[in-house]
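Quick entry between incubations.
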Amino acid sequence: MRDKVVKLAKIFSIFFRIGLFTFGGGFAMIPLIRRELVDKQGWIDEERFIDAILVTQTVPGAVAINLSIFFGYRLLGLAGAVVAAFAVALPSFLIILGFASFFNNFAGHSLVDNIFKGIRPAIVGLILYGGFQLSKSIKWTGSLVLITVLALLATSVLNISPVIIILLVLLITLIDHLLRGRRIIPDKGIQVVKEGQDAENIA
Amino acid sequence: MIYIILFFEFFKIGLFSVGGGLATLPFLKELIDKYGWITQEELLNMIAISESTPGPIGINTATYVGYSVGGILGGIIAVAGIVAPALIIIIIIAHYFDRFYERPLVKGAFMGVRPAVTGLIASVAFGLGRSELFNPGFTGLAFLNLKAILLFLIMLYLIYRYKKHPIIYIITAAIIGIIFKF
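Done. Structure below.
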């Protein structure tokens, strides 16, 4: 029992630090997690570590949170997973609460207004570039381009919910999987982003 | 009950945003269009802050929206909502599957979703860009927000050309915003 509490406290402190120092998104935290869990603590071996990176990119949700849940669970079951997720999210939660109260106090202040009016066009650029980055990890085929264009038109022109679009694509994938003969989605169409690649812009 | 709606809406975002941080944006944009909990400008401000502080966009925005709607408890509930699907899914995978990624169906689903997510992210950029770079309701030259368009094009070029950390561009744009009184 005491061992378990000590280990939970350690999981908390490791993932809190990871949450606090990970700028630039989930992929930026991979070296940090490796150092803590593989090299320093020896809790996870190298092969399991790589497997975890692949899994956490494939399932929904932020990579940072996913990695923490995955390792937390492997280390100490459900309690480990919950504590790791809580610890990694806590720093951003506190920082944003700080910003939210700042905005409440300074909204309408002309300097703050100028700053954010300047920043917003740049953010539109960053989002556009983020989409471009994602597109580079795809080996395009005609049907994949069609999926992209349809998704774009369906949301921006027809106002169809992204939830519907993702569900439809998953359905198409399932059908494609069952009818192996004619493949819509090629087997090796998309590479998985490995450590070090595109660490930026994928927050 | 606002807290139940908050939890449910962010649970949905957590469940469907596959493929990295920006993948949450289409859902967040739909959410604010639907409920008006925060404005489009606030969403863009939050993305700027998310890119400049540690932590994923999803968590940061959930905190901000939840707090705006229902105080600190609202923030906690929204974050719990967005994290819950990952918690459930990953625990199931970690428990029952080994080498999960190598299953063909999983691989296929991942490959199919990425192009769709690319399209969805582009749609967010167009949607937010429309309100930032243009002045709806005006015609002719007044329709164009020339200062913002110029800044956008310069930034897009710099981002593409130099591939630096987003915080560099955000600070640069902030300074330009102050000097040229945006």
